[in-house]
Amino acid sequence: MALEQLIVFIVFLAVGLFNLIARILRERRxxxxxxxxxxxxxxxxxxxxxxxxxxxxxPPTPPPPARPAPxxxxxxxxxxxxxxxxxxxxxxxPAGLRRAIVLTTVLGPCRALERPDSGxxxxxxx
Length: 126
Prior knowledge:
This protein has 126 residues and is mostly helical. Helix content is 47%, strand content 0%. The protein has helices at residues 3-35, 72-76, 83-90, 94-106. The two termini are 58 Å apart.
């Protein structure tokens, strides 16, 4: 018997035993109520409630000072060429073009969305 099967069997037995004990205790409580005996001793009276100390009020902190605006030369500087330019440079070689075609084929539209009788996607007609 595998360990997992043994654990499931033990859990099954534990649940059954728990249900049996709960039923016995429930029947005992009902029998005590019918006989007039209290099921348990009455709870002691609640302890007196003490008043809480006054709350401490924390004054709000002022907002941090605003940063000064960057100089005009820095704001007007053109953005350097990013990943789009680098991607276009990679297609310049035959190997890059082949890689792009393969990626387009693999990552292209799902063939499950195409109608069996035509080659175009049926979602494109909506």
